[in-house]
Amino acid sequence: MVADNLKVNCDPSGPIMPVRPRGLFHSIKFFVFCHSLLQLAQLLVSGYMKSSISTIERRYGLSSQKSGILAAFNEVGNTILIVFVSFFGSRVHRPRYIGGGALLACLASLLMAMPHFLSGKYDYTDRISSSSDNSFGLCGVSTISSSSNQTCKGQDTPAQQVVYPLLLLGQLLLGIGAVPIQPFGISYIDDYASKKNSPLYLGILLAVTSIGPAFGFITGSFMLRYYVDFDKLSKDEIKLESTDLRWVGAWWLGFLVASCLLFLTALPYLFFPRNMPKEDGADDVESRPDVNKQQTNPLQELTLLQFLKSFPRIALRTLRSPIYLLVVLAQVNLAALLSGLATFMAKFIEKQFSQTVSFSTMMIGGVGIPLAVLGTVLGGVLMRRFNLSVRGASKLCTVAIFLCMLSALPMLLIGCPTQTVSGVFPHSSQEPSCNSGCRCPQEAFNPVCGSDGVEFKSPCHAGCSSVENDTSGKVTNYTNCRCVGNASFARPGTCGSGCSHLLLPFMVLLGLTSFIAAFSQTPSYMMILRTVPTEDKSFAVGVQYMLFRVLAFMPGPVLYGSVIDTTCLLWGKKCGKATSCHYYNLNGFRQRFLGLQVVFVCGGLLCFLLTMVVLRRRAGREEPENRGGYELVDGEKTAESSKEKEAQGIKT
User: Fold this and answer.
1) How far apart are the C-alpha atoms of 325 and 611, rounded to whole Å?
2) Is the pLDDT of residue 220 over 70?
3) What CA–CA distance (Å, rounded) separates 71 from 63?
4) pLDDT value of position 256
5) H-run or E-run covering 508
């Protein structure tokens, strides 16, 4: 009776010792709760970075390719370390490593906000002067003045030059801090949760952590409504409106908030044990074959040198599993799609449908991501409700991605034509002769919309010689514009693409695509966890995330950014150097950006179809083993036996 109530301490470094449960920190349910909050905070930083990327691009004059490199740079340190850290997952105190990674991510988030405090005030072109004549930037008035020269000198200061490297360093440390969080957390939960509840916990974990990027985008939408230098300027000194193409929001503010959340969610991991009782009383030694494996497995006794020698063979053995490899490659395609869309979809909505940055990020965080979370939850529920085998999971994934492709294709047809911009589109060869005597500076960018529907880069380029103000001194119209037909006046701001009414059907299709694609997330994870030996779970998840980073998260944003740059019609200039893009060919932007999405969806569909073929052939050759309703496609006993033989060979 007493022995039945004792729990087993399966610490591989010592003998099996009976330990009684000791409260909240010995509950796997509480660990799932804490880990969900931590990943929510960690992914909030990631989501916030992506929501702010176009603003950072505009603030520091980056191309989309450069901002794509910045978005992908946190994968560099992660890629180098994740496999080794995951392999040692069963040897180290996983909760403490998770907490340490969270604290490093906290410091990195603070570092990301530093460029704002090191650099000067945001200096945009063609600022309206506060002088009484309000003639700054008009035809015949030179706007290249001493203030512009001072701005160019400011670009050469050490503080300004260190901005981009500092952002890259912050991203690098964020990636390193994230290394132990998800692999250790997933393997820890799957080790100590019951076989029945493990898919549900994993589904909850993936769903709740998916809210992290959503909170990141929503936080970005809120923060970007504030002017970037609201802490340096008074309200009266802020002249730009959020609808202005030159508007830059307070991108740095969210990183300070995220660092506080990371610090708070890291603290509980100092109190979780290295090993905890198995859920539902299934933790007796007799019913815990994984305990005996951990005690008798010779790989647990390998030194670091022996591990480094055996590492290539262990990695190769893991990758030789066709189901594992195909599922990971399918996830790589979907991850590449996700990384590009998450980084640049808000920019796409902003440019394509003439929306503000804050509204565009709200659409992603408030519509796209929540529907993906719902799909992830339902995928986990279906796995548990129907007790799906590996074959059943592969069928569910295949159907979901096929339906995803059907909903993604129509988005290619929903978009807006490029607005007419004088001297830019459709005729970009030369400026009109009507403003030849205006002495317009080449770097001028203060868009105005003529009464004839044609957009101009600045009042000067429109040939405007006077302005009309309201009672507060705000410019309402530019008048006497030589290059504008009809009433010869222009209003401040862009004309826009003129089809904002198409945003609703586009968001419906985007939300539907996200919802359907997310159904495959939990089943694909379970396919991986159920086709590798128990002691290889951390390592297999580590290899999975390494491939994600090398093949998807690193090249994905750079590829998308490079494709977007090819559609640029007019690059901005500052101090003689090219900065961010002012105008895009919207048809080319839509076709190339969303076309990549369809390519990656097709790649994922092909891989899942191949898993069905492999499983069907294997089922015809041998009767699969069943444990808890799941097929162990790669025979666990065979895998364990080969692993023990390999370890014994290394020792000898």
Assistant:
1) 9
2) yes
3) 12
4) 92
5) helix 503-518
Residue 490 backbone dihedrals phi, psi, to 5 degrees: -140, 145
Q: What is the DSSP string of 252-301?
A: THHHHHHHHHHHHHHGGGGTS-SS-PPGGG--SSTT-HHHHHHHH-GGGG
**Per-residue pLDDT band at 566 (split at 50, 70, 90):** very high
Structure tokens at 474: 């705000």
Domains and CATH numbers, the chain: 29-272+308-417+500-644 (1.20.1250.20), 433-492 (no CATH)
Alpha-carbon gap, residue 539 to 545, rounded angstroms: 10
Distances (CA, A) of 634 to 74, 92, 298, 538: 34, 27, 21, 17
Q: H-helix or E-strand containing 557?
A: helix 555-565
Spatial contact of 99 and 267, defined as CB atoms under 8 Å apart: yes
Pairing of strands 568-574, 490-492: unpaired
Q: Is the pLDDT of residue 332 over 50?
A: yes
User: 639: Cβ–Cβ under 8 A, 6 or more apart, which residues?
Assistant: 532, 533, 536
Is the distance from CB of 500 to CB of 509 less than 8 angstroms?
Answer: no
**pLDDT of 6 higher than 70:** no
pTM of the predicted protein model = 0.75
Structure confidence by residue, pLDDT tens digits, 68-85: 889 888 888 777 776 666
Q: Is the peptide bond before 492 cis (omega within 30 degrees of 0)?
A: no
Say what the pLDDT of residue 600 is: 92
Angle ∠(390,395,396) on CA atoms, nearest 5: 95
Task: Look at the block and give the residue holding tokens 């490659």.
Answer: 329
